[in-house]
Amino acid sequence: MGVVTSPKQDRSRATRQRLLAAAVACLAERGWAGSTVSVVAERAGVSRGAAQHHFPTREDLFTAAVEYVAEERSTALRALAPEGRAQAVEALVDLYTGDLFRAALHLWVAACDEPQLGARVTELEARVGRETHHIAVALLDADESRPGVRELVQGLLDMARGLGLANLLTDDTARRRKVVTQWTRVLDGALG
């Protein structure tokens, strides 16, 4: 038997979701400096008062956005269903080229100067990093009991993050495809 919610609770939950999605989109497009509660509220289609009802401070809003980003990235990882190692490598690299990664990056940078954000970002990124690694091992059908395999998978994820960073400044699709193809060959040789 499911939990029964009232229409008011449903609207409140929907407003909260819109605010979190808008916060992530604003971070991805405008960075930390350009992402204020007012800007997020306007993008979400709610009043500043409604935004502050859900998130009394900017830090509350963006701390919750950190959690939202982490959940969305984890959901995206769990949804991957590639056929073969080449598609797995490409899918893992693609996780680092979208708006979720861009928003996460802005949060990482802001966390360097915002102590309230820093602890939460560090904690969530550690959790997401562990989960990403675990899912990558499964997608690649990698046996981590073999020497060097754990480091090889982590190298793939570190490389994917670097490719995502390169893509922030220019469209790096052509070079990224070549790197993904070569890295897949390396993995095929090393993982068997």
TrEMBL record:
Span of domain HTH tetR-type: 13-73
Swiss-Prot/TrEMBL keywords: DNA-binding
Domain of life, per lineage: Bacteria
Record InterPro entries: Homeodomain-like_sf (IPR009057), HTH-type_TetR-like_transc_reg (IPR050109), HTH_TetR (IPR001647)
DNA-binding region as annotated in the record: 36-55
PANTHER family, sorted: HTH-TYPE TRANSCRIPTIONAL REGULATOR PKSA, HTH-TYPE TRANSCRIPTIONAL REGULATOR RUTR
Protein name as it appears in the record: TetR/AcrR family transcriptional regulator
